[in-house]
Amino acid sequence: MHHEHEHFLPEPLPENPLQAVDEWLTFAKENAGRPNPDAMILATSGPSGMPSSRVVLCKELIRDPGYLVFFTNYLSKKGRDLAYNPKASAVFHWDRLRRQIRIEGQITKSPTAECDEYFATRAWPRQLSAWASHQSEPVASLDHMQKRVERAAKKLGLDLAALESSGLAPADIPRPEHWGGYRLWISSVELWAEGAGRIHDRGLWTRDLTVAGDNAFQTGPWQSTRLQP
Length: 229
Ligand SMILES: Cc1cc2nc3c(=O)[nH]c(=O)nc-3n(C[C@H](O)[C@H](O)[C@H](O)COP(=O)(O)O)c2cc1C
What we know:
Layout: H1 18-31, E1 39-45, E2 51-57, E3 60-62, E4 67-73, H2 77-84, E5 87-94, E6 99-109, H3 112-119, H4 124-132, H5 142-155, H6 160-164, E7 179-193, E8 201-206, E9 209-211, E10 217-219, E11 223-227
Antiparallel strand pairs: 1-2, 1-5, 3-4, 4-7, 5-6, 6-7, 7-8, 8-11, 9-10
Helix pairs in contact: 4-5
Residues 36, 39, 52, 54-57, 70-73, 76-78, 135-136 line the site of flavin mononucleotide.
């Protein structure tokens, strides 16, 4: 039955799952065979309790103390959900690799210096759209959206025509306050590896997160268990 043994999780499960998460993410970047191997589906919920999910890019995994980083608009639907309920779950799935990673945890905002630093590396159209777009708000038409981009460029004193002929390099555009990073502090990880005959291998790790100051958590020890498929 174990003819694809290399896909399975070690026996016994390692004490800390984040090295495996890191290895799976790194492996996927080379081998996923599709664009955006760092895409994860992020689920949030707000006052209604209705879960809401969408794709975002995982920009970083910090193994110690253990959080993922993604960037978005703080005033978007997900941003409003996270302000109300700073908890999220995320799932990565790589079809060709026959692997899935599920993550749950607590949310904090990234420090502003980190947001500024990352914003400064983004291609100018993305920097500009962070100013132009009230993400998740209605817009009358795509034409109106284009007008918003032009208006934002004007407000920022940018010469759109010059930028357009300059390529995609970042421009000297400041980060809008409503755009930045979130840290998803990991309290639960499930590694899922496809097996033959639906006998998949699943390892689940959980730990406690205790509030430690305004924007951080202290992490407890990991507990692990194998799950039936
Ligand atoms: C491959 C892919 C990557 C995406 N990456 C991001 C991202 O990193 N940040 C982001 O805000 N939206 C990203 N989006 C758009 C989101 O899926 C979503 O449409 C947007 O953030 C608004 O979500 P909300 O209204 O639920 O807040 C991405 C979409 C796709 C398909």
